[in-house]
Structure formats: C-alpha cells, structure tokens
Amino acid sequence: MAEEAKAKGNAAFSSGDFSSAITHFSDAISLAPTNHVLYSNRSAAYASLHKYAEALTDAKKTVDLKPDWSKGYSRLGAAHIGLGHFDEAVSAYKKGLEIDPNNEALKSGLADAQSSASRSRSAPPPTNLFGDAFSGPEMWAKLTADPTTRPYLQQPDFVKMMQELQKNPSNLNLYLKDQRVMQALGVLLNVKFRNSTGDDMDMPEASSSPPPPERKRSAEADPPKEEKESEPEPMEVSEEEKEKKERKAEAQKEKDAGNVAYKKKDFDTAIQHYTKAIDLDDEEISYILNRAATYLEMGKYDECIKDCEKAVERGRELRSDFKMIAKALTRKGTAFVKMAKTSKDYEPAIESFQKALTEHRNPDTLKKLNDAEKARKELEQQEYFDPKLADEEREKGNEFFKEQKYPEAIKHYTESLRRNPKDPKAYSNRAACYTKLGALPEGLKDAEKCIELDPTFSKGYTRKGAVQFFMKEYDKALETYQQGLKHDPQNQELLDGVRRCVDQINKAGRGDLTPDELKERQAKGMQDPEIQNILSDPVMRQVLIDFQENPKSAQEHTKNPMVMAKIQKLVNAGIVQIR
C-alpha cells in the first residue's frame, strides 16, 4: 500500500502536480514511517513549491533515517539554498560527496552553494547616505544615552530592526513607517523629525476581547510634549503632505472608534468606522483586517474573505510586514472553515493556512491547519461510508481469494474497509490474503484489528494464531487459540491450532528438534523480551544451576508454579531441555 501511494506521488510529481505529490507521499509515509526514500521524495515536492522550510524538515528526516545515502544530502543542500543558508548547503553537499565522491548532482549543487555563499559574503555594501549613522557600537551608545530612544531598546522587534540596519543600511526605506526608527535616526544624526500621528495598533481578533497590540509604542517612548512643541521644523511641509497627515490622523480616530464598538459587540457601528478609516487612508492594511475580523464575528464570511484578499493584495503593494500578510491569510482560512459543509470545502481553507505559514510560521495558524486537515479527513470518511458497497467489495475480494489471486483480493478488501472501516470480516479476510503472500506483519496487524472490533469473532483468533504459528511463535499462537476457545469452545480450527502448537512446543522438551531447528528456535527465543527477562533474573539463574547441580534444591523448585511456568517458557523456546 505504501508503494502504491509512492507510485502515485511519483506520477503526480512527474506531471508537475506537486501538491498532489505531497499528499500521496504523506499517505505513503503514514504507512511506512521509516522509509527514507518517501521523505526524500516529499522534500523534492515541497522544494518545487518553494516551501523550503518543509523541504528542509523532510531532508533532515531522510538523513537521520539513512545517513549513508548521498541523495539525502542533495535534498538537504537544495533546501538550505532555497532558504538562503548557503554555508549550511555547502556543508550538506560536502557530506554527500564523502559518501559518493563521483555524484554529479552533488558536485553541481556544491558549486552553486559555494558561488552563492561567495557572492553573499563579498557583495559590496550598498551606498547609503545614512550608512555611517548605523555603524559601530556608537549607535547603541547614542540610543541608550537619549531618554526618548532608551525605552525602545527593551523592545525585541526594534532591536532586531536596528541590527538589520547595521548589516544593510540601504534597507532603511523598509522601516521608515516605524516612528521608533525615525526617532532613532534623528538621535543618531542629531536632527529632529516630526512624529506621524499614525498608530500601528493591531486589529481585533475574532473574539470578544481583542489581543494586545503587537507594535504599539509605549507611552514613555514619546518625547515630552513641551520639548516636541519647541522643536524647530526641519523643512517646510507642503499642503498636500499636510492634508495627507490630517487624513491619516482622522483615519486613526475612526479605527479607534471602531475598536471601541468592536469590544462592545456593536459590529455594525464598528464596520462603519473601519470603512471610513479605509477610505481616509489606503496605506494601512490593519483597517481592512479589522473590518474582516468584524465580518467574521458577524458570520458574513464572504465579505470577510474579500477583505482578507484585499488586505493581502494591498499589503504586497505596500511591502507590509509579512506577519500582517500571514494574519490576513489565516483569517481568510478561518472564514472558509466556518463555511465548510463537505470535505471539499476545507481545501481552500487548508490552502490559505499553508500560504500563511510560508509568510510567518505562527503556532496558532499551524494548529488551525492541523484541525482543518483532521476535519476534512473525518468528513471524507463519513462521505465515503457505505456498508452496502462495502459488502459488495468484500464479496469481490472473496471471489479473487478463491481463485488464489491474492493481490487483487487485497485491493477489494481494502476498498471495502474504506467504505466501512468497522467491518471485522474484511480485516479477517485481508489478514488471510497477507498470510498467503507471506506478508506476516501485515496479516498480524489485520487479525488484531479484527479481534479488537469483535472479540467474539472466532475467525480473528484463527487468523492471528496462524500468523504467529508461521512466525514460529508457538507460545503466543497457543495463547491466541486458547483465547478464541473461550468464546467458541467447539471451534475445530481453534482446537487444531492448539494441537499443532502443543506438538511443536513438546518437540523442544523431548529433544526431537534437529540441530538447525533447535538453533533457529533458540535464536528466536533470545529475541523475546520475556525470555530475556527470565535469563537476566538472578533468582532464575540460580534455579537453572540447581537443576544441573543440586537435585534436592531442584525438587523444591518444582513445587513453585511461578518458577515452573518460567522454566516451561525456556523449554518451549529451546533454551532449556529437560531429559
């Protein structure tokens, strides 16, 4: 079954349908979680969709499972390059070449990684008029000394922005909307910039009490009013800029009023205020997201989705914070989940959550994704459930079984179980097919599931006992047959199973096993944890010595039923022979 899912994944990958390929490879992994090739294939599919974080996770898993497989390092290197981790990519390709020195794919990948790493390190610093302001430790000293910027140093996102500006001052234009950066720049250049009246208060979540803002400035970060009023203006402000600033201030007031109405659950009023804010200032997507959150609370999911899409589109135009883009996509996915009635309805929600995670890997979004995938799977099972069709598929499987076409029979039994996963007969029949094909672990698993679904169904015990007998686990098979006889005491198959097991067990006690049979049984017995525990028990070791060297003590041991039960276990396993 895992190979079948893998083949489907390979076909989808070859046709360029990478999303379907990921689905099929994931199905295969759930069936064969230790198969390194499956993780490698899924890593390649993720990389093809530019989902390099997921590709890296799968590549690491591949290498963990098969450290001596060169292709795993090729996947690892490709994922690191996609994420811009060029040094890590170089290291991965080199490790792969240690295993397979002549691998052309690894050689090519190493060359690309080294070239990218070299360009990254040797690229000339961009020209920037403010470059000197952010250089050296003096920057931090100035910011610490100034009372207006000192509080910002306690804010991790501000510190991160300043560190990035130290590395690349040309990116200053990316942060000019943040008033803290403008304030810091003024301190570093010894000039004063006018404060914007805009506010980065976060939008309300879809709950009765919105979360605290992410980037709202603390009150202590604002300069004293007296000082602000006495600051000289650095330049004349045009009428157009003045009008724009006034509109932004008015938009902020509307947003604040909307937030108040939202908290009071006066959603119609909140919508009015957010709409006015959007009309006044189209450069702030938080207003759109606030309105989307309100529509979500009102159950107007189509309007919510439209606003989220608008926020994403406008946010990309404005190069807004990726976290805001992720939030819009998450909210869109949440609206789709609220609307979902069938398994198909969950697909756009899952796609939205996946896109959000590529923007920002938020734990809440990841949980929403997992919940949506689980809900879709459950609905798929409900929609596919059809006991009548399940019986028809099982009968088709029976026909193929009679013709000894076991793979074809397994296919129909599997389809029967998809239609009705609670049918013990289908599990029993498929277990018989697996046994015929020598796929004993799969047969044992199906037999155990059969017994779990119906503990009184004797066929489940005969299937399980047969598998254990073929695996030469005669003790376990005997126990299984005896459990079945408790529910069906006259069942001839179970009685025959008991007889066969007893006969095989007694062979060891009588010394009737050939040297090869004895050696094989002993080797198998030594793998049994119960046998290992008996042999490592100091008391039992002394008992075994007494049986060999001290007949009187041995006679006393025979009166202890627990000791004799353990001795019988060792006899059955061929470890001990009683003559």
What's the gist of this structure?
Helices cover 72% and strands 0% of the residues. With 579 residues, it is mainly α. It starts with a helix and ends in a 7-residue tail after the last helix.
**CATH class wording of the largest domain:** Mainly Alpha
Number of helices: 30
Termini Cα gap: 49 Å
The biggest beta sheet reads: none
Which fold does the CATH topology of the largest domain refer to?
Answer: Serine Threonine Protein Phosphatase 5, Tetratricopeptide repeat
Percent in strands: under 5%
CATH architecture of the largest domain: Alpha Horseshoe
What distinguishing features does this structure have?
6 domains; 30 helices; 579 residues; single chain; mainly alpha; Serine Threonine Protein Phosphatase 5, Tetratricopeptide repeat
Q: Overview of this structure, please?
A:
The chain has 579 residues and is an all-alpha fold. It has six domains: 2-122, Tetratricopeptide repeat domain (Serine Threonine Protein Phosphatase 5, Tetratricopeptide repeat), CATH 1.25.40; 131-189, no CATH class; 202-217 and 244-320, Serine Threonine Protein Phosphatase 5, Tetratricopeptide repeat, CATH 1.25.40; 337-384; 387-507, Serine Threonine Protein Phosphatase 5, Tetratricopeptide repeat (Alpha Horseshoe); 517-572, 434 Repressor (Amino-terminal Domain), CATH 1.10.260. It is built from 30 helices and no strands. The protein has helices spanning 2-14, 18-31, 36-48, 52-65, 70-82, 86-99, 104-122, 138-145, 156-167, 179-189, 225-230, 239-263, 267-280, 286-298, 301-318, 322-339, 346-359, 363-384, 387-402, 406-419, 424-436, 440-453, 458-470, 474-487, 492-510, 515-526, 529-536, 538-549, 551-557, 561-572. Helix 5 runs antiparallel to helix 6 (86-99) and helix 16 packs antiparallel against helix 17.
